[in-house]
Amino acid sequence: MVCILILLPLLGGILQRAAMRGLEVSCRVQGTYRAGREIAVRFELRKMSRLPLGTVRMRVELVNVLYGDQKETEVWLLPDECREMSFVYSYKAQDCGNIKIRVTELRCQDMLGLFIFKRPANIQEETLIYPPKIRLNMELLQRPATKSFGEIYDQHKKGQDISEVSGLRDYVPGDSINSIHWKLSGKMDRLIVREFGMPSNYNTLILYEMMKRNGEEEIPNAFNNAVLALTVSLSLGMLELNLEHNVGRIFHREFQTVPVYSMDTYDQMQMNLLCLPVVEEANGADMVYSFFKGNLRNEYTKLIYITPCFEEGTVRQLSREMDLTVIQVVQGKGINYMSSAGYSVVSVDVDTYQETMQNITI
Prior knowledge:
Blueprint: H1 2-21, E1 23-29, E2 32-34, E3 38-47, E4 56-64, E5 69-77, E6 84-92, E7 97-109, E8 116-130, E9 137-139, E10 153-159, E11 161-170, H2 182-188, E12 192-199, E13 204-208, E14 211-214, E15 217-218, H3 221-240, E16 245-251, E17 254-260, H4 263-275, E18 279-281, H5 284-293, E19 302-307, H6 312-319, E20 323-330, E21 336-340, E22 343-349, H7 353-356, E23 359-361
């Protein structure tokens, strides 16, 4: 009996170690989710042998690149006799951003719970958590001014500026007769049309600002999530009104912007929003300084400024240069419109904006 009690645990440990060497673990997750939804992470185990396998414990790290937050948890898996198994771990994603899911270590425990074998792991998957979707009905008090011609041309969009030819292609029914390249068509023995360039002078700017601190005041992630949700919703609303625009942000005093004129560029803009980290501390004066330093006041005629907090003095300075609307994320108030000297302020409640934010006047 003593020999059995000694040999049986040793045999179980040897079998466990052999089974662990032939264990393969992989991770899968859907590419995109919405904030506030459950994220399902699927772990798949594959055994190379039929040896019994005890409890498998995995150390999982969840890293939000946007906010720099990191959460560590331990996931327990209970394998059976099958050689291929699948397990689902679910958690609720409260914040937007690019989420990296990493498995850094595996721990396998034998059937009797006496031995634990560790093995390093290098498994990583990523998913994008998009902001909550808001369906906005936009009303423009004044349609933003636009320019017809510009010196910089967009290589990915076709227009009607005959001073710049961006490409050639075969004629299709519906093309303008004026766009036919007659000399080249005669040489090629088929109709060839010219594709004209589109000036990339977008005169409406949606400027959003995200921060973790403003002086001594801490800015919760919920405020920044609301800023992102309002930014993408306003951009989509302007796109539906056929208003080409830019979406930009001041990052370390550098102005970064993305032109939005189609659904493809809209999707690209959303990805940029989710992958650029939030600064530790921001200041409204820095934003105005960067704006004027880049001489951006001469490029835009309309500015929509979305922020959790702003300085009235710097905003008033901006309003002297262009048509300005400020959208501020606050707490404890409903949607409130306030018109000041040269600009208007729209206050949006961080707790209820998803339900109450349906109409907005810009």
